[in-house]
Amino acid sequence: MSEPISHPSLVVTAGAGVPGVSDRPVTVPPVAPGEYVQQTLAGLDPTTGGGVDPALPLYATTFVVVDLETTGGAPDGGGITEIGAVKVRGGEELGVLATLVNPGVPIPPFITVLTGITQAMLVPAPPIEQVLPSLLEFVSDAVLVAHNAPYDVGFLKAACAKHGYRWPNPRVLDTAALARRVLTRDEVPNRKLGTLAAYFRTATRPTHRALDDAKATVDVLHGLIARLGGHRVDTVGEAIDFARAVTPTQRRKRHLAEGLPKVPGVYIFRADDDRPLYVGTSGDIATRVRSYFTAAEKRARMSEMLAAAERVEAVECAHPLEAEIRELRLIAAHAPPYNRRSKFPERMVWLKLTDEAYPRLSVVRALSVTDTAYLGPFRSKQAAELAAAGFHDAVPLRQCTHRLSLRTVTPACALAELGRCPAPCEHRITPEEYDHHAAAPFRTATTSDPQVVVDALLARIEALSAAQRYEEAAVVRSRLAAVLRATVRMQRLAALTRIAELAAARPAAGGGWELALVRHGRLAGAGVSPPGVHPRPTIAAIRATAETVPPGHGPVPRASAEETERILSWLERPETRLVEMSAEWSSPVSGAARFRDLLAKAENGRSHQLSTERS
Predict the structure, then answer these.
(1) Could you tell me if 583 and 498 are in contact, meaning their C-beta atoms sit under 8 angstroms apart?
(2) Are both 69 and 179 inside the same structural domain?
(3) Are 378 and 384 in contact (CB under 8 A)?
(4) Which residues pair with 82 in a beta bridge?
(5) Cys-Cys with 500: which of 84, 330, 484, 582 at CB 3.0–4.6 Å?
(6) What is d(CA 504, CA 487) in angstroms, rounded to the nearest whole number?
(7) What's the rounded Cα separation, in Å, for the pair 334 and 279?
(8) Together in a domain, 121 and 267
(9) From 163, 208, 231, 534, active-site residue
(10) Residues 123 and 228 grouped into a single domain
(11) How many domains does the chain have?
């Protein structure tokens, strides 16, 4: 603990012989020459998240029991008149913090009558901004306990926010809420601190003074913990969850979360006939599945799913990326009824240019090997049609569905009369001219540079806005966004899926490296190299057992678009390192990606800024 606040009214004591604390200097052994040492990228924080492990047994958990006296009213960053805190673990008192606090405002008379704290007592006391550093250090790495915790925590959080201190966001256990779950009305008529102190015969009686009330709450906490064993609550996480309101179904099915591994992976809730009901993923399977049986889970469909579930199956994975990919594949394979997203990837649609003398745009369910000009995949037919409308606004592609002949003339439609179509049906334009002005801009936009299409749509938006036809301009803006969204996405996917094999590594949280082997945009193998060991032998082992992925046609030949996008997100993280590639990973210099800012403006509805993007 750092130097306490130098003030006569602040008292901090600590118990001697606290386990895990040493005053001896720590020395770091030197690294032997030639030994492999894992390096971190510059600017990365190597530390992991702190806090108390929810799986920690109650007897090994450090609790800091806090009580505040205030001037009353709502928490606004002030109003605290006294703080009392007691640190305990395993029934042993480790430390005490107690101080009066000058709230900077007069104390209401009824508060003085209730607590015995007078204005004269608080004049020499330190203000809350001087007390907070010692209190926050005292609470660090412990579970915060209070009776009616939202009240005390609310005042402390408001004080931290007002005076610029970071709230450590500790785990909080409310003894009042826990008593409502543990004790019946036959045992205690209410859950007031005085009533509970009398029931458990605490050594210190509550007196509306912070330290006395905190010490009484310590004894109440120990009495409540003694009752939790009958409810099969053994860890601090289970105790916090138990204090919250849960449904009878959650309480009855809690045993389904027992025995699951605390590793990254996929969990599958299965019905009595072994049918998958719900598939999820987590970096910690055990902790995530337990959360379904707590008050934090409020989704109605999850309550229905839990009622039908009979067991939970865990699929352990090397790291979170592999877990995400396995989840996607399981959802696609089984279409669990309680999963809403990532189902039916085969329902994606494409926008392709037909193979005709005068080609047109067509929405199709799948691509053939003969298709050379296409855009997608789109998640729905409506999205594909919106992008098609954007191309129709920009270039003179015909919109009729007739198969035109080079010999026979077909009567023109109204679009030709309006000047929206060059009327290839009446042979007013040659196939070569039609390809140059209509079809070629689509091919160029999808594979490399959409500049022609973007300029045409921006000019149309500008003209409509100048004519104060703002609703029509907004429609064209949405079509521009659909075109850019699709072209950026497809070129980004194609850049990865054309690579036959790519190996990448990312630092693992516990040391070592998370490794991924990607073939044509599909995760073919995954693993983790041990800390202190060079990752190349592990990569070689992954390659020897990896899935064989042959090349295919299109931007997502061997995986769903969502799987490849998950892999891309992992590869594009700043800490990920590319180890080996069979070919270069590149995108067109003048490709659609350079219009990302324009896409963001179009999606945000800023039509008046779009004309400035023309080049």
Answers:
(1) yes
(2) yes
(3) yes
(4) 69, 100
(5) 582
(6) 26
(7) 9
(8) no
(9) 208
(10) yes
(11) 4
What CATH number is associated with residue 286?
3.40.1440.10
Structural domain contains residue 193: yes
Q: What is the pTM of this model?
A: 0.68
Q: Examine residue 344 and state whether it is found in any structural domain, yes or no.
A: no
- What residue numbers bound the domain in which 252 lies? 246-334
List CB contacts of 432: < 8 A, sequence separation 6 or more: none
Q: Within 10 Å of residue 178's Cβ, how many Cβ atoms?
A: 26
State which H helix or E strand residue 119 sits in: helix 119-122
- pLDDT tens digits for range 279-296: 999 999 999 999 898 877
CA-CA distances (angstroms) from residue 524 to 227, 573, 584? 51, 20, 19
> Cα–Cα distance between 440 and 192 in angstroms, integer?
78
Of 162, 167, 163, 174, give the one whose Cα is nearest residue 67.
174
pLDDT in tens, 241-255: 788 777 778 888 989
Q: How far apart are CA 483 and CA 389, in angstroms?
A: 9
Q: Are residues 388 and 525 in the same domain?
A: no
* Closest residue by Cα to residue 11 from 94, 124, 131: 131
Per-residue pLDDT of 162-183, as tens digits, reads: 999 999 999 999 999 999 888 9
Domain boundary among 190, 207, 241: 241
Q: What is the distance between the alpha carbons of residues 368 and 358, in angstroms, rounded to a whole number?
A: 19
416-465 pLDDT tens trace:
878 889 989 989 999 999 999 999 999 999 999 999 999 999 999 999 99
For residues 73 and 202, membership in a common domain is answered with: yes
pLDDT per residue as tens digits for the range 491-518:
999 999 999 999 999 999 889 999 999 9
Q: Are 80 and 159 in contact (CB under 8 A)?
A: yes
E strand or H helix at 471: helix 470-497
For the question of residue 231 being annotated catalytic, the response is no
Task: State residue 250's pLDDT score.
Answer: 87
